[in-house]
Amino acid sequence: MRYYIFLLFSLLISGSALADNFIVDRVYHPYVLPFEREVEWRLMSRQNDDGNLLQQRYSFGHALSERTILEAYIVGSRDEQGDFGASSYELEFRWMLTEQGQYWADWGMLFEIEKEHASNDWSAKSGVLTEKEFGRFSLTTNVFLVYEWGDNIASEFEGEFKMKYRYRWIPEIQPAIEFYAAEDYVGAGPGFMGIKRFPASRQLKWEVAFITGFNGDNKDHTLRMALEYEF
User: Fold this and answer.
1) Contact (Cβ atoms closer than 8 angstroms) between residue 40 and residue 58
2) Up-side HSE of residue 146: CA atoms within 13 Å toward CB?
3) What is the rounded CA–CA span in Å between residue 82 and residue 105?
4) How many domains does the chain have?
């Protein structure tokens, strides 16, 4: 109960969200594999009354210990002229706080710093990651507090909440419902994810989701996709 009160409080104290810092993205699980390395690609395409926002992320991550991992991102987006190029850079640190199944839920934390490519604009993010299993179902939640500052944006706080309710049918195919909420956005929709394991602790993860926004626009649809290879 205390945890969900904290979720609500984090959202209430949030400031306004920026359009280019769109919330629909990966819902993080609180797990880190011991000494893992990973490469990842993500795509997000949002179509609404303002047009189409296209964004991709490319990253490399390396575990620093059995419970922590550091990941670096290059973020690319399409500008108003239709050209695609680098838009920002991110550095992300994740920390698995508890062993899987140790408590009533599994817990982790995430810290992130981001700088815009063409301007002196920054954002810092910190948050709590949880996952709880109910038989073959899993509930994953992310709660983030974000602070933004720079030459072209007002210094402000904002909150984000992400949730995924997943059915672990088979490892390769796991259907889910995803939910996203921020100051200027609420959306939900179906998703699928899967994992293919290989020898020597290697594995390939995939995700796809189609999220509909409930903000009064005539059309607000987001497609997100991700591929992650861990080795």
Assistant:
1) yes
2) 25
3) 44
4) 1
Alpha-carbon gap, residue 151 to 168, rounded angstroms: 46
pLDDT tens-place string over residues 11-30:
444 433 333 458 999 999 99
3-state secondary structure of 155: coil
Kindly report the CATH number assigned to the domain that includes residue 157: 2.40.160.40
User: Tokens in use for 153?
Assistant: 């944006």
Closest listed residue to residue 125, CA positions, set 75, 160, 80: 160
Segments forming the whole domain that contains residue 222: 2-230
Question: Which whole-number Å values give the CA distances from 102 to 76, 107, 129, 133, in the listed order?
Answer: 39, 10, 15, 12
Q: Cα–Cα distance between 124 and 90 in angstroms, integer?
A: 10
Res 26: pLDDT:
96
Count Cβ atoms below 10 Å from residue 200 Cβ, excluding itself. 5
pLDDT < 50 regions, the chain:
1-20
- CA-to-CA distance for 164 and 101, rounded, in angstroms? 18
From residue 126, how far is each of 96, 110, 112 by CA, in Å? 14, 6, 6
Residue-wise pLDDT for 191-202, tens only, equals 999 999 999 889
- Residue pair 53/22 in contact (Cβ under 8 Å)? The answer is yes
Please tell me the distance from the alpha carbon of residue 231 to that of residue 217, in angstroms, as a whole number: 42
Rounded CA separation 145/155 (Å):
13
